[in-house]
């Protein structure tokens, strides 16, 4: 059986590829998977859960978010900062741990050397 059906499709606003698109939360511009990587800033998801695809802002909206998303955008930014801070602490802890381990090993080694 053949049947004509009407089907809604989404197209990338940049390259016009008919694909699943990612939407800017500020201005609503939509990009395909490939263009998204270049043109959308992706924040931590589920900060403000809207059902799907939250956390995307185009470059313009990321620099100058429209009034309606200003607050939400600053939340995404705050979460990103916290995340960076936490991973910073993690790195500091790691390098301190490594330094202490090296120091202990050196001391052990010196002791061993001294015994012989
Ligand atoms: Zn595209
Ligand atoms: Zn936008």
Structural domain tally:
1
Low-confidence stretches: none
Q: Write down the secondary-structure element order.
A: EEHEEHH
Widest β-sheet, arrangement of strands:
1-2
Radius of gyration: 25 Å
Helix count?
Answer: 3
Q: What small ligands are held by the chains? A: zinc ion
Q: How many beta-strand elements?
A: 4
Task: Please state the average pLDDT score.
Answer: 88
Q: Percent of residues in beta strands? A: 5-15%
Helix content: 40-55%
The class by helix and strand makeup works out as mainly alpha
Main sheet specs: 2 strands, antiparallel
Shape: elongated
Distance between the termini: 90 Å
Keywords:
116 residues, mainly alpha, two-stranded antiparallel sheet, 4 strands, 9% strand, binds zinc ion
Structure commentary:
There is one protein chain. This protein is elongated. It is 50% helix and 9% strand. The protein has one domain. The strands form two sheets. A two-stranded antiparallel ribbon has the order 1-2. The protein has a two-stranded antiparallel sheet with strand order 3-4. The protein is mainly α and 116 residues long. The model has no long low-confidence stretch (mean pLDDT 88).
Q: How do the strands and helices of this protein lay out in sequence?
A:
Elements: E1 22-23, E2 30-31, H1 33-39, E3 40-42, E4 56-58, H2 59-63, H3 70-115
Antiparallel strand pairs: 1-2, 3-4
Bound molecules: zinc ion (ZN) (2 copies).
One zinc ion binds at residues 12, 14-15, 17, 31-32, 34-35.
């Amino acid at each position: 059986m053949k049947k004509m059906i009407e089907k809604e499709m989404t197209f990338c606003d940049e390259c016009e590829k008919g694909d699943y698109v990612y939407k800017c939360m500020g201005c609503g511009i939509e990009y395909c998977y490939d263009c998204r990587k270049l043109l959308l800033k992706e924040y931590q998801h589920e900060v403000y859960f809207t059902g799907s695809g939250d956390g995307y802002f185009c470059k313009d909206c990321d620099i100058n978010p429209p009034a309606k998303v200003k607050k939400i955008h600053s939340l995404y930014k705050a979460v990103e900062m916290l995340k960076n801070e936490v991973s910073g602490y993690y790195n500091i802890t790691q390098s301190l741990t490594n330094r202490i381990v090296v120091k202990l090993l050196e001391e052990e080694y010196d002791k061993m050397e001294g015994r012989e």
